[in-house]
From TrEMBL:
BAR domain span: 17-276
Species name: Basidiobolus meristosporus CBS 931.73
Taxonomy of the source species: Eukaryota, Fungi, Fungi incertae sedis, Zoopagomycota, Entomophthoromycotina
Protein name (database record): BAR domain-containing protein
Pfam assignment, any one: BAR_2
Gene3D superfamilies according to UniProt: Arfaptin homology (AH) domain/BAR domain (1.20.1270.60)
A Gene Ontology term for the protein's cellular component: cytoplasm
Length: 291
C-alpha cells in the first residue's frame, strides 16, 4: 500500500502538468481558428511592444550597414583589391626617398598595406609618380596627392575604429541584452496569457466537483499573468527610455565629423599646390607653342 501511495504521489503532479499542457495546446489551436476567448493585454503594453519593435528594427538595420566599418576595404571595389595590394607596400616612402635621397625604411613582409580606397589611390598615384618622375609636373603633383591620400586613409581607419567601438559594439550589446530581455519577457507574457485562457476555458466546462479547484487555478494563473505583464512592461520601458542609442549615435556623428574635417583640411592644403603646378605647366606649355 505504501508503495502504491508513493507511486500515486509521483504520478499525480506529472499528470496535472500533462493536463495543463494539453489544455494550453487546445487553447492555442482554438485561438488560431478564432473560436476561443483571448484575454486582452493593456493598451500601454501594446504600445510599448510597438515602440520596442521599432527600436529593435532600427538597431538591426543599422548594425547590418555599420558592420562594414570593421573591414578595411569596404569602399574599395573587390576586383581592385588584389591588384592594388600588389603594389609596393610603401611606394610613397620609396618615392619620398628618391626625392630626399634618404634610404627607404625596411618593411616587414607581414606588414600588409591597408585596403581602403584612399590608400589605394595613394599607392596608384605614388606608383605613377615614380614611373613618370617626380621632377615632372605631373609626377610632382601625383606625389603630393599620394601623400595626402595616405593621410586621409589613415584618418578613415581611425574613424572606422571609433565607429566600431563606440557605435557598432554598443548597439550590438543593446540588441543582445536589454532588447533581448524585453523580448524574452514578452514571450513569458504570451505563455502566461495562454495558460490563463486555458484555465478559464476549463472552468467553463468543469464538473461541479472540479469547480473550486479550477477556480483556484484561474486565480493563480491571473496572478502569474499580471506579474508577467508588469515585468515585461518594466523591461520594455528600459528599452524605450534608454539614453544609450542616442549617445551611440552622437559618437557616430562625432567620429564622422572629425574624419571629414581632417580630410577637408588635408585636401585644402594640397589643392592650391596642385593647382599652382597645373597653372605653371600650362603657362610653360603655351609659351613653348608661341615660340
Amino acid at each position: 500500500m505504501d508503495s502504491l501511495l508513493t507511486f500515486k504521489q509521483k504520478v499525480n503532479p506529472w499528470a496535472a502538468k500533462v493536463s495543463q499542457s494539453l489544455g494550453q495546446a487546445k487553447q492555442m489551436a482554438q485561438e488560431k481558428l478564432g473560436n476561443a476567448e483571448v484575454t486582452q493585454l493593456p493598451a500601454e503594453y501594446l504600445e510599448l511592444e510597438k515602440r520596442v519593435d521599432a527600436i529593435r528594427n532600427l538597431h538591426l538595420n543599422l548594425l547590418k550597414i555599420t558592420k562594414v566599418y570593421g573591414t578595411d576595404g569596404y569602399d574599395l571595389p573587390t576586383q581592385l583589391q588584389d591588384s592594388v595590394v600588389g603594389f609596393s607596400r610603401n611606394v610613397v616612402q620609396r618615392v619620398n626617398s628618391m626625392r630626399t635621397g634618404e634610404p627607404t625604411p625596411q618593411v616587414s613582409e607581414e606588414d600588409q598595406p591597408p585596403k581602403t580606397l584612399a590608400h589605394g589611390l595613394s599607392r596608384v598615384a605614388a606608383e605613377g609618380a615614380e614611373e613618370i618622375g617626380i621632377q615632372e609636373p605631373l609626377g610632382s603633383a601625383l606625389f603630393k596627392y599620394a601623400t595626402i591620400q595616405e593621410k586621409i586613409g589613415d584618418a578613415r581607419r581611425v574613424m572606422d575604429s571609433q565607429i566600431t567601438t563606440k557605435f557598432y559594439e554598443p548597439f550590438n550589446t543593446t540588441v543582445n541584452s536589454t532588447i533581448q530581455f524585453a523580448l524574452n519577457a514578452r514571450r513569458q507574457v504570451q505563455t502566461a496569457r495562454v495558460k490563463l485562457d486555458a484555465c478559464k476555458a476549463s472552468l467553463k466546462t468543469a464538473k461541479p466537483d472540479k469547480i473550486n479547484q479550477l477556480r483556484s487555478e484561474v486565480e493563480q494563473a491571473e496572478d502569474h499573468f499580471v506579474a508577467a505583464v508588469e515585468e515585461a512592461m518594466e523591461l520594455m520601458k528600459a528599452v524605450v527610455e534608454s539614453p544609450e542609442p542616442l549617445r551611440n549615435l552622437a559618437d557616430f556623428v562625432a567620429a564622422q565629423l572629425t574624419f571629414f574635417k581632417d580630410a577637408y583640411e588635408l585636401l585644402s592644403d594640397v589643392a592650391p599646390e596642385i593647382s599652382d603646378i597645373q597653372m605653371a605647366q600650362e603657362t610653360a606649355f603655351r609659351s613653348s607653342r608661341d615660340e
